[in-house]
Amino acid sequence: MNAVTAPLRSVRERFRALPRPVKYLFIVAVVVIIYLLPIINPPLITTQDSDFASVLFSCAMYSLVAIGLNIVIGYAGLLDLGYVGFFAVGAFSVGVLGSAHAKLPLIICVPAAIVVTMISGVLLGAPTLRVRGDYLAIVTLGFGEIIRLVLVNTSWLGGPRGISNIPAPPSLHLFDVPHMSWEGFTAYLDLTTTTKFLVFSVTDAVPYYWLAVTIVLIVLFLDWLMQNSRVGRSWEATREDEDAAELMGVPTFRFKLLAFATGAAIGGLSGALFATKQVFINPDNFTIIYSVLFVAMVVVGGQGNRWGVVTAAVLLIWLPEKFRFLSDARFLLFGMALMALAIFRPQGLLPPRRRLRAQRSAEREGVNAEEDPGHIEREVADV
Amino acid sequence: MLLEVDDLCVNYGRIEAIRNVSFTVGEGEVVTLIGANGAGKTTTMKTISGLRPVRAGSIRFKGEDITSMPAHDRPVLGIAQSPEGRGVFVGMTVAENLDMGAYARVDRKTKAVKDDLDRVYSLFPRLSERQTQVAGTMSGGEQQMLAIGRALMARPTLLLLDEPSMGLAPMLIQQIFDIVTEINQQGTTVLLVEQNAAQALKRAHRAYILETGEVVREGTGAELAADPAVKAAYLGGDV
User: Fold this and answer.
1) What percent of chain A has pLDDT above 70?
2) Taking burial as the number of CB atoms within 10 A of a residue's CB, which of A32, A87, A129, B87 is the most buried?
3) SS3 A368
4) B114 close contact with A: CB closer than 8 A
């Protein structure tokens, strides 16, 4: 495990040691490169068999999902196996308000979708967050399926055929951005392929990607603010020991509900993003397998680390697209990779340092429980 | 009376854990509940701090009925508990654990908290040395100190200590009890639950003996320590 984290840690430390302006410049450069990825089309990274900008959009959108679910699972320690339900509520809210029953512009639909999903999170959480552990997982698993079945069986929501003609974000044509093409490793500007800045259309996914990345960056910032506040500390205490947290005066139920509602709101936002990009949604987009994929992102990335879950989301979306030429075998390989990870790195790719500490101490606790005499002697000697 | 417990009954499902338990704790006292495993000591503690629902009876604190008040509202009133099995936050550092102790305080952003932190560090110099250490990597004795220190950070009127001596070496037990006495002398009322009856009776002003969920005897610590029946049952039987 240290073979992976040790070099990462040294990178982190070396980065910390840099002078401030250099650090900011570096961050700005990384952000700019991230925005320009679909324009640059970097060889090796780009996907040959599917539209690279669309793949990148999916990466960003699922990162958002992972950040939201990470609040629920990683921070508050609540295993939610029905997260796709919130994703669906967000998408269908936009569908209903923007196309099926009203023609509201997306600018209004999206905040409304967030509010609706948040309410659905509270409605699901209020009765179910009183049960702990496995029971919560089962209840949420049921919730995800109930949402899908309601969608299939309610003609007001489009039934199995779903909702089409979902509105796009408002467009504004300012200038054209030429793409880059590559021959081997030499790049040249391709003036025939351009992206209209900023026009959202079905033929060009790049503006959607930009929108998604912007939302991801904003949500990441809010996530950081929340985690480093009293709220984040309350979640941590609740996750580690609910009874002890209550004894300290943490209203644990309220904080679990807050985590659920916040997670739901972000899930709803990603659903809304999905809907506007897809233009057409139906209940098949929200099957239980997505909930499993979402949980996989959080677990693979390292529960509780926002950068870890974002990395995992990007990898889990990008890898199957990159290796599309392997066709059906790619899911077999994908599954095997997940299993290998579970065996060799169960704490995830980038577990948060705090979580690592807790885990190590839990292992020690195991030794303590066996009442090894050496330990007691050490105690006497220590004090 | 600071704490008045009246005819308290608590169930785990259909099993009665404690039955008609009544006792009081006066301002400034050290009161101990002693009894064998399963006598209902910890259940009583958890009920006072609000973690277990009450089936019948009442709990009054400073004259106010707190029987059905949620656990997280009780620290604000001045009740803090160091739970059985320590219950420290193992992934947090010593300093962060102590900070959690002051979570419910209205004056948590003032110097008062800093003063209490200094007080905890002077009571437990060991914690001061290990401020940045992760709680889970510390020894049992240190975790116990942390649990008590964390409870003190709430600046409680009533400190509930559930088995502070559990699993500790004899020398450490002595030390922990010395500190409990010191805390009491500094003005904090202590309700102590113990299996180590000898130490508990020595330190307590008054004591109650619990057997299978009921209070069977009460008296001053010295009285009970001298009682032949108590000696036989709880103090190693050298009658």
Assistant:
1) 90
2) A87
3) helix
4) no
